[in-house]
Amino acid sequence: MMKIALITGASSGLGREFARQIPKLYQNLDEIWVVARRAERLNELEMELKVPVRIFDGDLNQDYIYKKLGIALGKSQANVRMLVNAAGYGKIGTFCEYGWKEETGMVDLNCRSLTRMTALCLPYMHCGSRIVNLSSAAAFGPQPGFAVYAATKSYVYSLSMALGRELKGSGIYVTAVCPGPVDTEFFDHTGKEVASVKKKFRADAKDVVRKALIDSARGKKTSVYGLSMKAAQVASKVVPDSVIVAVMEKIAE
Ligand SMILES: NC(=O)C1=CN([C@@H]2O[C@H](COP(=O)(O)OP(=O)(O)OC[C@H]3O[C@@H](n4cnc5c(N)ncnc54)[C@H](OP(=O)(O)O)[C@@H]3O)[C@@H](O)[C@H]2O)C=CC1
Ligand SMILES: CC(=O)[C@H](N)C(=O)O
């Protein structure tokens, strides 16, 4: 059986950082499989990494990429040691500013494709395998002006928690990674300027990923980087939603 890690969204930001750090922590991997649309970026990553890389360039909102992956998983009798679902995007702005295509596009990539990828890989996962899902601190409460994005991340958080519970006993652990703002290309695609407070306090992708991998190795259900985001997580459990919405609206101004 071929031991692999499969990473979506590996052409930039957090996904690419996972591809860089995973081989340092898991030295017995035969290959790393990377998924994203920009093939040239994935080629650069392949040149950079010492472990063999298999490139799946394609759009996760289309069927063909899952078919290609499904065939490859079966043919190589893959043992998926780690699945990182990092592909995702978010548009800043009110619900009515964007058409349905953009709103449902976020749902399709952030929720649907993550769910489909997880379903595709699970039969190839065994005791000790890890699923790392990129949720966000946005999962901790509704965000006016980032409504659909925050809702998709709540979905990822909820799914990760429940799936982790269902898999209890199988030795497969699921970790929802919930960072605050991280310095990646994510904010080049948000359509609008991000709130200044989010700009000021961006975490480094390297640190977020390092912590996520340690938390995943320890079988933790969530990985929350930084004191302020940990405080936000705790606050979300005790502060009423109406207050959270009002605070998030203020932050977005
Ligand atoms: N940056 C941040 O502040 C935070 C980010 N997150 C989450 O982390 C994850 C990674 O984000 P981040 O690294 O910051 O953002 P980036 O924009 O740097 O990376 C996004 C990745 O998703 C891939 N992607 C986008 N659309 C598709 C598609 N249709 N099919 C296949 N791949 C696609 C991109 O590759 P390509 O364009 O080549 O297809 C890219 O590799 C996301 O889920 C995001 O929501 C969570 C909290 C904070
Ligand atoms: C993009 C993110 O997910 C981040 N947590 C934010 O709310 O800015």
UniProtKB/TrEMBL annotation:
MF annotations from Gene Ontology: 3-hydroxypropionate dehydrogenase (NADP+) activity
EC numbers, comma separated: 1.1.1.298, 1.1.1.381
Key words of the record: Oxidoreductase
Annotated Gene3D superfamilies: NAD(P)-binding Rossmann-like Domain
Chemical reaction(s) catalysed: 3-hydroxypropanoate + NADP(+) = 3-oxopropanoate + NADPH + H(+); L-allo-threonine + NADP(+) = aminoacetone + CO2 + NADPH
InterPro entries registered for this protein in UniProt: NAD(P)-bd_dom_sf, Sc_DH/Rdtase_CS, SDR_fam
Keyword Oxidoreductase included in the entry's annotation: yes
CDD domains recorded: SDR_c
Job description of the protein: NADP-dependent dehydrogenase with broad substrate specificity acting on 3-hydroxy acids. Catalyzes the NADP-dependent oxidation of L-allo-threonine to L-2-amino-3-keto-butyrate, which is spontaneously decarboxylated into aminoacetone. Also acts on D-threonine, L-serine, D-serine, D-3-hydroxyisobutyrate, L-3-hydroxyisobutyrate, D-glycerate and L-glycerate. Able to catalyze the reduction of the malonic semialdehyde to 3-hydroxypropionic acid.
PANTHER family: NADP-DEPENDENT 3-HYDROXY ACID DEHYDROGENASE YDFG (PTHR43086:SF3), VERY-LONG-CHAIN 3-OXOOACYL-COA REDUCTASE (PTHR43086)
Family the UniProt entry places it in: Belongs to the short-chain dehydrogenases/reductases (SDR) family.
Name of the protein described by the UniProt record: NADP-dependent 3-hydroxy acid dehydrogenase YdfG
Organism: Dorea formicigenerans
